[in-house]
């Protein structure tokens, strides 16, 4: 198969292999998020349809297949939750038979976000990564971090600023909206 000039090298995506490796885990994730087995199955199906359609944009140098699929799943779960919010009668049933609106357990969503951010952090320079991790993720004061690193506070602020720009770009390259 000929490769188009200028196209980024993409890994051949074997959907069956990807489903066998990650389908059950994606289903459990969607089920925890949505609380509805049917909706979770729909989400998993949608994940693999989207992955198949976007297979040419998948680049294993930017993100692992698992991370890429979970980013797609996160978006599909959000889409499904939004559809349900418009049609609340199609939410999950409570013990008394009433329809309960679907809510997203924030822990699962945060877990996927953490995987995506971790993958994106690997893509930026070490100085920028350290500045972001220490100030934003560990919530340490700039003065304390700058002293520890032996740099002026202004330099740390600059590293955080440009690091966040690089992080945003890395996430966009991974196909994730920051």
From TrEMBL:
Keywords: DNA-binding, Sigma factor, Transcription, Transcription regulation. The keyword Transcription applies. SUPFAM superfamilies: Sigma2 domain of RNA polymerase sigma factors, Sigma3 and sigma4 domains of RNA polymerase sigma factors. InterPro entries: RNA_pol_sigma-70-like, RNA_pol_sigma-70_dom, RNA_pol_sigma70_ECF_CS, RNA_pol_sigma70_r2, RNA_pol_sigma70_r4, RNA_pol_sigma_r2, RNA_pol_sigma_r3/r4-like, WH-like_DNA-bd_sf. Pfam families: Sigma70_r2, Sigma70_r4. Residues 19-84, 120-168 form the RNA polymerase sigma-70 region domain. The keyword Transcription applies. Belongs to the sigma-70 factor family. ECF subfamily. This is RNA polymerase sigma factor. It comes from Blastococcus goldschmidtiae.
